[in-house]
Design brief:
two-stranded antiparallel sheet; 8 helices; Glutaredoxin
Length: about 210
């Protein structure tokens, strides 16, 4: 789901064996991915790499990408840390960001994450108001009162503000987007497809190791 076109200048190139065949694919900055200038410090210890998925629960492209990225995530080597970053690009997106951070803080993200996606895209539930979200939380068997109080807390609001700042710093303007080690971003519109997006991400991780 794009909000504006990604633009960039072509600089540099990389070689990666394309998944499933022996043909080498050339990935170019400004075409298949966009470098972040200057790079953003991940805050991780030396030798650790970071992948962040910027997403919105209401995005159909994020929903279709989710099983692919989950499978890819399980095969990541030990030196790579994966994290989600909900994109608060408007009021509804910010509300859903609060849902994500609330579930994370309460330790129920595993119970809510895929179920929230499914409710929107499989069940046609908009979940665009606090009351609708709390009914959903209650139906999951979670404590809706605790969820409401946490979702309204200053700490959760601060996380959403920080997420907006991070997205601006990365130069992300659409979802889903992968941020690779604070050095580059890649989306399906850049790479060509969700599968190719993950292939470019693999290439960028290997480049970051060298």
């Amino acid at each position: 789901m794009k909000r504006r076109d990604f633009l960039g200048t072509m600089a540099g190139a990389g070689i990666l064996l394309a998944s499933g065949n022996t043909l080498a694919a050339e990935y170019r900055d400004g075409r298949h991915f966009q470098s972040i200038t200057p790079p953003v410090d991940t805050g991780l210890e030396d030798g650790k790499l970071q992948v962040i998925e910027v997403f919105w629960y209401g995005c159909p492209h994020c929903y279709s990408f989710e099983p692919k990225v989950k499978e890819w995530q399980t095969a990541l080597p030990d030196d790579v840390e994966f994290a989600y970053l909900p994109a608060p690009m408007n009021d509804v997106w910010a509300l859903h960001s609060r849902v994500f951070y609330t579930a994370q803080q309460l330790g129920v993200l595993d119970d809510l994450h895929q179920a929230f996606y499914d409710a929107i895209h499989d069940q046609g539930r908009l979940l665009r108001s606090e009351s609708a979200i709390l009914r959903f939380v209650d139906q999951l068997g979670l404590d809706a009162d605790e969820f409401r109080e946490t979702m309204r807390s200053d700490s959760i609001r601060a996380k959403v503000v920080e997420a907006a700042q991070d997205i601006q710093e990365y130069g992300v303007s659409g979802v889903p987007t992968l941020v690779i080690n604070g050095e580059a971003i890649v989306s399906a519109s850049m790479a060509g497809s969700h599968d190719e997006m993950l292939e470019v991400a693999d290439y960028l991780l290997e480049r970051a190791r060298n």
